[in-house]
Amino acid sequence: MQLRLLSFLLFLGVSIGAVAKDHFLIPGGPGGGWDTTARGIGEALMKSGISDNASFQNMSGGGGGRAIAYLIELGNRQGDMLMVNSTPIVIRALTGQVPYSYHDLKPVASIIADYGAFVVRDDSPFKTWDDAIDELRDDIRAITIAGGSARGSMDHLVAALAVNAADLNGARIRYIPYDAGGQAKAGLLSGEIQMLSTGLSEALEIAQSGQARILAVTAPEPIPAYPELPTLKSMGYETSFANWRGLFASPDTPDSKVEEYVRRYRKLMQTEAWAKVRDRNGWMDLFRPTDKFQADLREQEAQLEVLMTKLGFIR
C-alpha cells in the first residue's frame, strides 16, 4: 500500500523530501555573459549539493526586454525562476531602448563583478592596447569594435569610456552590435570585426583557446587569478569599470521567498564549488543582499546618467 502511494505521488510530481530545483531565465543567447553567469551559478549550486537540479532558458530579443516582459507577465506562476541580469538593465532603461527597468522587478542579490576586456584575434596587428589607441588617434573610426548588445549598451559604453581615457572622443568609435556575446565572438574569430568589447569571462574562453589575445581589462588593479592581464590603469589610462551581475525575481514574489533566495546564495558564496567557478571565469565576488543591492542600483543609475550624458549617449 505504501509503495503504491509513493508511486502515485511521484506520478503526480509531488516531491518526496527537500528536493531543491533552480530555473534561470537568461535574457540573451548562448555564449554571452548572462549565459555564462547563469550556468556557472547552476554548476556551483549542484556541485555544492545546494541544488538537485538547475535548468536554463535563453530568451534573447529587445536588448533583454523580451525576457523582462516575460518574467513580469508570467509572475510567480513558474515557481523558482530567477533572471540573471547586469548593468545593462540600468543602461537600457536610461537610453529608452527597453520600456522596463529594475524598478519593475524584485532585485534579489548581486553575485559577481565582471570586468570589461578588449580582445583581438591572435593574428591581429594590434599587439597592445597602445597600438590600438595609436590607430584610433589617426582615425577614430579606423577600428571596428563589436559587442554582444545594441548601440548605447554596456559593451559600447565601456569601449567608449576606455577610448575617452586616451583623450579621444570615445562616443565616435565605430561600434558594431551583435545579438548576444556568442555571435560577437564568432564575428571576431571570422574576421568580420577587428576588436571585441566584452566581459572578461567571455574573453578568457577564446583567449585560452589560442584564437585571440586580451589587450586590456577594466579592473582597477591586477586580477588575482589572472595577474598577467594588463589593466588600463597599469598602462596609464585612468579609468576602470566593473559590471555587476545579479539575480531578479518576478514582481509578485513574496518577500519571504526573496529572503529564502538570499540565504541560499549567501551559502553558495562560501563553497569551494563556487570558488572554482568564480576563479575560472576571472570574476570577483560581489554578494550584496536585497536592500544593499537596491541601494547600489539607485546609486549606479544616477552615476551612469551623468556619464552617459557626458559621452553623448543620452541627452
Number of strands: 10
Helix tally equals 11
Mean pLDDT: 86
What gyration radius follows from the Cα positions, in whole Å? 21 Å
Beta-sheet strand percentage?
Answer: 15-25%
Which range best describes the helical content: under 10%, 10-25%, 25-40%, 40-55%, 55-70% or over 70%?
Answer: 40-55%
Would you mind describing this structure in some detail?
The chain has 315 residues and is an alpha/beta fold. 41% of the residues lie in helices and 21% in strands. The chain has 11 helices and 10 strands. The protein has helices at 2-12, 33-47, 65-74, 88-95, 129-138, 154-164, 181-190, 200-207, 255-269, 272-281, 290-311, and strands spanning 21-26, 53-58, 81-86, 106-121, 144-147, 174-177, 195-199, 212-217, 242-249, 284-289. Strands 1, 2, 3, 4, 5, 6, 7, 8, 9 and 10 form a 10-stranded mixed beta sheet that branches. Helix 2 packs antiparallel against helix 10. It is globular, with a radius of gyration of 21 Å. Residues 1-19 have low confidence and may be disordered.
